[in-house]
Amino acid sequence: MTSLTPSLYRESGTRLALERTHLPISTNARDTFASLGLNTRLCANVVKVGLQKPTAVQRECIPAILRGFDVVGTSQTGSGKTAAFALPILELLGVDPYGIFCLCLTPTRELASQIADQFDAFSSGILLRSCIVIGGESLRAQASALSSRPHVVVATPGRLVEHFLYNDEIVGAFSNLHSLVLDEADRLLEPGFDAELRIIMHNLPSRRRNTHLFSATLTPSICAIQEVTQKTAFHYEAQSNPGFKDCVQEYCFVPAKVKEVYLLHLLKVLLSNGVSSIIVFTRTIYSCELLHEMLGILGLDTVLLHSMKKQRIRASNLGRFKSGEAQILIATDIASRGLDIPTVDVVINYDVPFVPREYVHRIGRAGRSGRRGRAITLVSQFEIVLLHKIEQLTGIDLGEVSGVVEGEVLKNMSAIFSARREGKMKMSQLGGFEDQLRLRKKLKR
After folding, report:
1. Average pLDDT of span 419-432
2. N or C: which end of the chain has fewer CB within 10 A?
3. Topology agreement, domain 4-237 and domain 242-444
């Protein structure tokens, strides 16, 4: 838990005391978006994007935001959290459309772009002006866009801090801010974002601002905020995690030295059985890059996603995967947060995540939009304890993958070892990739 957590809400300027469990609309009366208080135009746009009726998080949080409450919402991935804050903010924006009305902070560039797209889709015909502020894009173009005071700004903290530090006029553009949203709040409240959040909060107005936090998992930081704001904010927490029901969860025990051999075998079996969309999660950028090179050498068409890739390449790779042009995405945990790719059939955890809740975010990429998903976790002899922690968190005992015959798997061993050597040679020639990684680690210290 960061020291920022309790002060975040002390600065938020909440104006209304909460009549917590007494919101006047009964659950049965919230079966349409109109019944939640949204105007005709927004309701029509919601239908256009394919939403038929509100989800649980939307039924509870939209009326609370419309009534002026701060909101802390925790609900599983794929439950419609973006619409739960975007729709009421767009409704309120129609009353007071001047200046930057909403700032939405999110941990990754891809998620920022996705949130901005959803704001645009929900606001069709409303003449909304939105702006995306993320790394990898022109600072000058972003500064010009911010100076024109768009209605909605979606940003990653690091890039927004750059603007705040070097341009006082941009800080002034946020003087009429009405709503601050922290999406994937559990990630933003970790120590890695603490310095950036402090600078941002110091430069935002507090008197008129409402603050909304949304997350898929409860963390000590979220719990601390709930304690601090018990009487001043509306809290919504999903009673269960139905996303688990839509995803078959399994593990495959593998010796650490031949993990890539088992991965190749599973990928070939899955593809031969008609699986068309697979995400492979790794713990490190180095593993992500090496697996991409190795599988390419072995004839599999993969794309990769990690934070050291330029933004245009990240966007292009994600686009190829979403369109089905590439069937396999190799990614670090930047792909585990909020990305809406409804066609993912299987998630493979090449590495067991150190933090159990990251497992929840990863497998949330599969089994979306009513589809049945599957998650397979490769577990080495050094990761058994991590698997047990995940089972404790989820309350589910993972079953072992059936049909994996060691003799069949190890037939590919020599080809894999050869591809590993070739892949490492290629990486050493990619502009000092390993040197860039070492420099990045030093800068983080």
Report:
1. 82
2. C
3. yes
